Amino acid sequence: MDHKPSVLTARYEVGRLLGQGTFAKVYFARSITTNQSVAIKVIDKDKVLKVGLADQIKREISVMRIVRHSNVLQLYEVMATKTKIFFIMEYAKGGELFNKVAKGRLKEDAARKYFQQLINAVDFCHSRGVYHRDIKPENLLLDENENLKVSDFGLSALAESRRQDGLLHTTCGTPAYVAPEVINRKGYDGAKADIWSCGVVLYVLLAGYLPFHDSNLMELYRKITKAEFKCPNWFAPEVRRLLSKILDPNPITRVSMAKIKESSWFKKGLNSNKQRKLEQTETQAMAPLSRDGSGPSSNGSSMPSEEAKQEQPMKPSNLNAFDIISLSPGFDLSGLFEHDLLRRETRFTSRQPASVIISRLEDTAKLLKMKVMKREPGLLRMEGVKEGRKGLLTIDAEIFEVAPNFHLVEVKKSNGDTMEYQKVVKDGMRSALDDIVWVWQGGKEPPQQQEEAQYLPPPLQQQQPLQQ
Ligand code: ATP
Ligand code: MG
Q1: Which residues bind ATP (predicted)?
Q2: Mutate to test the pocket of ligand 1, among 64, 141, 155, 162 (most ligand atoms within 8 A of CB)
């Protein structure tokens, strides 16, 4: 990196360049505190500003933080300076999947394994309301265990802008993976467009080359629009059938994720045991982000242990850069979260002492007909009494002291269904706590001159706008 800002070097040792895309460079790095390997994607704000994307990217960052799946490359943290945005991401040691295909097509079983992982990841994100819109080889990475990691989920703003700009489009290679309805710029269904791209990926894995290719771009478009492709003779009948249903130029009749998962070719080798295991990793992967400020958690689950919590129940150091950015008036991402239908956490600041906050939370629990399960200086856990769609709804409210009589309260779902959680927060908790809340995250209008004000996450003492 030409210029490494201290916000980054304080926490990460930045190493070699891993790759480069249209808007970004990706570097290997290591967390100084945990020694964990990460990848850092550096996006030039100038470049994205030119195409008017800054706001959308910020919105998508918040989306990326909610899609946690073992086959989705995880976003750990976001940092920003005046000119750059840094995405601190999971490092995919195995590199791009297509480096493998470039050496020759894959055996059917190997291709199926990657396709299963791809479909599971993409379907999971769809269920969270997140569409990729740019599934292509460069975004399919492998970890050290040869597991697929889909990257750039939620960054569809970048994909979109490239498409809208004919020039960018051609310079960034062929649109070989893009669905016909996307090329034709009709309004399109993100899920169906992603399914098409998954079909192209499957074809490439099995064939070792693209289903649609032509040196003439118009001719290529024509082939895609007509879904004009041939399967090589080594494709088994079952997979031919599946591919013809996925690569259906009509998004309405194109096969759904559910149907793909039911197909005999997809299911082969997936016994119910494995399926169950997959589902388990899904829930594990839903654990919250590290909040200890020491960077990515090493084990996916980052809930601090009970002892640790008791020792340091309300330390300001519990805030990470993301929290600071969200709290700082200059770089306010908070306005974006309101639109996030699937958020599992919400925050508010309060100028009341912790004891008052706790007792008001208890009152709120009563009002919401929830039981208080745990009460500690910095934490209150409440649990629903009725079994919900995914078990008992459990909500943790954790209180962090930012300054004397200035607290940040993080309300987080620790069990149960996200939609149910959100309903409780939206319909009950917000109004019940209104008089002790100083600012809800998402309660403010983002500042008008946003770009002017986007600086480094300021030091904790200075980013305190509410102290005067
Ligand atoms: P674009 O994002 O412009 O569509 P792209 O996907 O190729 O294209 P980036 O997302 O910027 O661009 O990534 C560039 C390259 O860096 C990738 O193709 C990949 O080889 C490498 N890379 C990206 N993220 C990681 C990661 N987490 N671990 C390892 N390598 C990565
Ligand atoms: Mg990418």
Answers
A1: 41
A2: 141
